[in-house]
């Protein structure tokens, strides 16, 4: 994981003990966040990258945690490798870049990377024409 933070692993037992999640979770700075798993390789990551390679996390409190500015935005629901809000549906896909496995935030309908930005405290998710790197 590229973030220099202490990560506390939460046992998968929480998954079956009523937390209601379909994904395992981990703790990042006091926030329970979802862990996404590549069904092909088994690679797991809580850190998700956008088109600009900025990272975000998704909390079990239905928040997108925007790490570049330390902000949280409500209304993001996670189910396995799918993320949705009131305006769109997104997918977490997996690729490899600079020799490192990574999870990427993409448009569900066409698979292109999204740019996640914050301007004047407002979250903006925009489409790009770029696909996640699939370097092997």
User: Low-confidence parts lasting 5 or more residues at pLDDT below 50?
Assistant: 1-21
Quaternary state reads single chain
What's the total count of β strands? 15
Distance between the termini: 18 Å
Average pLDDT figure: 82
Structural class by SSE content: mainly beta
Computed over alpha carbons, the radius of gyration is 14 Å
Helix content: under 10%
Short descriptors:
136 residues; mainly beta; three-stranded antiparallel beta sheet; 1 helix; 3% helix; 47% strand; globular; disordered N terminus
Topology:
Layout: E1 7-9, H1 13-16, E2 25-28, E3 31-34, E4 36-37, E5 44-45, E6 48-49, E7 55-58, E8 63-66, E9 71-74, E10 77-79, E11 82-84, E12 89-97, E13 100-107, E14 114-119, E15 122-127
Q: TL;DR?
A:
The protein is mostly beta strands and 136 residues long. The protein is 3% helix and 47% strand. It has one helix and 15 strands.
Characterise the protein shown here:
With 136 residues, the protein is mainly β. The protein has one domain. It is built from one helix and 15 strands. It has one helix at 13-16, and strands at 7-9, 25-28, 31-34, 36-37, 44-45, 48-49, 55-58, 63-66, 71-74, 77-79, 82-84, 89-97, 100-107, 114-119, 122-127. The strands form four sheets. An eight-stranded mixed sheet has the order 9-8-7-6-13-12-11-10, with no helix packed on it. The chain is globular and about 35 Å long. The two termini are 18 Å apart. Residues 1-21 have low confidence and may be disordered.
């Amino acid at each position: 994981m590229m973030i220099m933070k202490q990560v506390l692993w939460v046992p998968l037992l929480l998954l079956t003990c009523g937390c209601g999640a379909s994904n395992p979770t981990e703790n990042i700075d006091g926030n329970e966040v979802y862990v996404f798993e590549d069904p092909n390789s088994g690679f797991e990551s809580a850190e998700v990258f956008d088109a600009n390679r900025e990272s975000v996390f998704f909390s079990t409190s239905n928040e997108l945690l925007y790490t570049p500015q330390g902000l949280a935005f409500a209304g993001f629901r996670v189910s396995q490798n799918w993320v949705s809000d009131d305006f769109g549906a997104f997918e977490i896909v997996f690729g490899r870049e600079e020799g490192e496995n990574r999870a990427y935030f993409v448009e569900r309908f066409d698979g292109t990377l999204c740019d996640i930005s914050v301007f004047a405290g407002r979250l903006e998710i925009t489409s790009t024409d770029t696909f996640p790197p699939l370097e092997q």
